[in-house]
Write a structure and sequence with these properties.
152 residues; alpha+beta; 5-stranded mixed sheet; 3 helices; 5 strands
Length: 152
């Protein structure tokens, strides 16, 4: 993953632990003060929300502990790999597109970042500028030509 992606995960974890966790505890305490816990749906909902939050925090901690930060300066732009920005042309309709291949946690289609586990990223891996590839996607297949490989 990129350094930027790693820092975003760490910031999200800090936010969850310092803001969301105390808020969840406060919601439980407030619901508890409303009386009989056996029929208190607000209390049950607050407990469930806290459990989901703790699960999210634990998953985030695991992701952070297993993360490997890629040094972009050591990557080679001769072939597509993780953190490559790939400019390509759809050979069927001539449309130009550009995607950066990132880890699953950093994927954001609106920002042009696709997960390394997507069919398009998998089909592009280890290909070079000028290569034409046909990639099977859920709606059939797509033919792409790689026009440029770079790193931001």
């Amino acid at each position: 993953m990129s350094q930027e992606g790693y820092e975003k995960l760490v910031a999200e974890l800090q936010r969850l632990e310092s803001i969301e966790r105390p808020a969840a505890s406060a919601a439980i305490a407030e619901a508890r003060d409303k009386g009989d816990l056996s029929e208190n749906s607000e209390y049950e909902a607050a407990k469930e929300a806290q459990a989901r939050l703790e699960d999210k925090i634990n998953r985030l901690k695991i992701t952070i502990s297993e993360a490997k930060i890629v040094d972009v300066s050591r990557l080679n732009a001769k072939a597509v790999q993780i953190l490559s920005k790939v400019d390509m042309t759809n050979l069927t309709n001539g449309a130009k597109m550009s995607y950066t291949i990132v880890s699953e946690n950093e994927a954001d289609l609106r920002a042009g970042k696709i997960s390394i586990k997507t069919p398009i990223a998998q089909g592009l891996l280890n290909k070079k500028v000028g290569d034409e590839v046909e990639i099977k996607i859920p709606r059939g297949s797509i033919k792409l030509r790689i026009d440029n490989i770079s790193y931001e």
